[in-house]
Write a structure and sequence with these properties.
Blueprint: E1 2-8, E2 11-18, H1 21-34, E3 39-42, H2 48-55
Parallel strand pairs: 2-3
Antiparallel strand pairs: 1-2
Amino acid sequence: GFMTYQVLGELFIIPDVFGDGKYWLSIAIEMAKANNCTRLRGGTTRNVKAYNKFFGTKIVGYILEKEI
């Protein structure tokens, strides 16, 4: 699998993950700590309730999209 990321201040942003979520979460936490980040941020197009339960996350914002 793979993971893309960006460091933005205290945020370790993960726009894309492909593969085993548990594996990539542990890698992301290690990389975030190495970059002095205190929070992970990502998103999903799937069932957000399931992801919140699985990863222990919460919703902190919204993405707005308009088809043109």
